[in-house]
Amino acid sequence: MSISPRRGRFVSTAAAGLLGVGTLVAVTQTPANAASTVAVDGATTYQTIDGFGVSEAFGQANAIRTLTGTAQKQALDLLFNTSTGAGFSILRSLIPSGSDSIEPNSPGSPTATPTYVWNGSSDTTDQGQLWLAKQAKTYGVTNFYNDAWSAPGYMKTNGSNVNGGSLCGTTGASCSSGDWRQAYANYLVQDAKFWASVGLTPSAVDFVNEPSLTTSYDSMLATSAQAADFLSVFGPTMKASGLSTKVACCDTLGFNVLPGYVSAVEGNSAANAGVGLFTSHGYSGAPTSPINSTGRPVWESEWAINGSNWDTAWDDGTADSGLSWAQNIQTGMTGANLSAFLYWWGISNTSHDSSLIGLSGSTLTPSKRYYALANYSRFVRPGAVRISATSAASGLSVSAYRNTDGSVVLVALNTASSATTAGYSVANTGSSTGTVTPYLTDTNDSTAAQTPIALSGGTFTATVPARSLVTYRITGGTSPTPSPSATSSPSASPSATASPSTTPSASATGQPTGTPSGSGTGCTAAYSVTNSWPGGFQASVTATNSSATAATSGWTVRWTLPSGQAISQLWNGALTTSGSDVTVTNLSYNGALAPGASTTFGFTGTGTSTPVPALTCASP
């Protein structure tokens, strides 16, 4: 989806101040003998979260830029402020392909020296999107996703950057002017270098948008075979540039289309080595189940309602409503293991539901779709890891995340027609005592802070109002046995199997029979494979104090990697390697173990998950 000419083609199935105190979410401490209906367990981890975001392409960045007075600040705060706004952490921008592109004129041939044109100091560059990215950076945003809807027309079979056409030189697309694949790869890399030169290095770049669709605005056709063909050139070119930017594929029209492009990429060794991110929109197929991405993050990179209405309602029974979008996000995060969720426009002056916030003159009107996203984006921060959360309550769906600052975020969505009271247990997260702060969105409330309560013994009780969304932010004390949490956002995190209530990825394999363990002085270590996929796996290691009387002051686990294995990322421990020899020692918070107590660290690796190694464990 892009601009208003497309409104109505697909209908999804699925203000000045943000915070206000509305209906109280009832919360009390759980009695000691109360059964927990909702269970959060940090010992089970899933995907790493890259963030939530929007685009302001096709003139909307300029609409924000030209606001005057307090309206511009209000707009930027609504989008990026992490205290009072949505705190969006990903900004998706269009790479122009027409007269405003970095190469508006053909150099004459694919091998001729191009003449690039770009002004990094102008607020109007790239349709105002560069200015907006600079503003976003002042709010702490660092994830800039740049996407070309089309190559310049002179590189395509139809000679135009609009109305489809294919890139000359890709499979089945021959042109008298020659093969433009390398020239287009150079063009995209140069555009990324221009952004990097002003401190805005793109996190990822895609070469196409909705490659199965021909439109009257910027568009380019690319079959899955053509995409893989070009990516086999683009990937190596980006890697040779020295930029940290990932190559993305392929902003497909829907998640029913994306698997074919993933398969084509994986079938082309050069393309497969160069692609670090898979992206799709939600229009022709919603994200409901995992994509076998062989360890690479999967983003829902654009989705919206393309009708002619402007609907601000929370629960009016339509696909436009905030409640419907809360369901879309919850399903995407838990069912499809998404690492990112992006709406189309954050703010637009188009007066329809392609945006989260309406702009009329200088008046900004957030819809309840906006607050549905804010209940996730403000609290689930980049680098967070989704952890296990299960609900036995009818109509109450939950998801949980551990942020890199140690806070735990639990999102509860009640689609039932009555309020739901549940006992909540929070285990293996590093927070057995502390504070639980609820934030409520429903018909009357908009990400509204409620009365905080104490987390005691890892439990609390809360009532989620009917047809509402509540985000619980949990902060505070430490658990005796902290659980795995990502120390940083990896360059390519595994697309793990979905939570127990969803269908696992076809690529996932079960845990091997038996759990290898090792012992040493004062502790034992047990190794378990928790997930595997072609070319990679995820494992956990539990270190246990073997003494019946004395606490440990630290621990060290060692093993030798089997041939072909390598560790990509490790959390909850300090890793050192020497050749194939691995040593993991405790961190500051999980070295002291009471007699018989244990702690777990985890890691992702490349290679096959077998054979499993023999471990040793030692405690000072």
Which consecutive residue ranges, at least 5 long each, have pLDDT under 50?
A: 4-35, 478-515
User: Globular, elongated, flat, extended or rod-shaped: what is the shape?
Assistant: globular
Strand content: 25-35%
CATH C-level class of the domain at 4-19 and 51-96 and 132-383: Alpha Beta
Number of strands: 30
CATH superfamily of the domain at 4-19 and 51-96 and 132-383: Glycosidases
Radius of gyration: 25 Å
CATH topology-level fold name of the domain at 4-19 and 51-96 and 132-383: TIM Barrel
CA(first)-CA(last) distance = 59 Å
Chain-averaged pLDDT: 87
Helical proportion, percent range: 10-25%
Secondary-structure topology with pairs:
Blueprint: E1 27-28, E2 38-48, E3 51-55, H1 60-65, H2 70-80, E4 90-95, H3 129-138, E5 143-148, H4 181-197, E6 204-206, H5 224-240, E7 246-252, H6 258-266, H7 269-274, E8 275-281, E9 298-302, H8 322-335, E10 340-348, E11 355-360, E12 363-366, H9 368-377, E13 385-391, E14 396-402, E15 408-414, E16 420-427, E17 434-441, E18 448-449, E19 453-455, E20 459-464, E21 468-476, E22 517-519, E23 523-533, E24 536-545, E25 556-560, E26 566-571, E27 574-578, E28 581-585, E29 598-606, E30 615-618
Parallel strand pairs: 2-16, 3-4, 3-10, 4-5, 5-6, 6-7, 7-8, 8-9, 9-10, 10-11
Antiparallel strand pairs: 1-20, 2-13, 11-12, 13-14, 14-15, 15-21, 16-20, 17-18, 17-19, 17-21, 22-23, 23-24, 24-29, 25-28, 25-30, 26-29, 27-28
Helix pairs in contact: 4-5, 5-6, 8-9
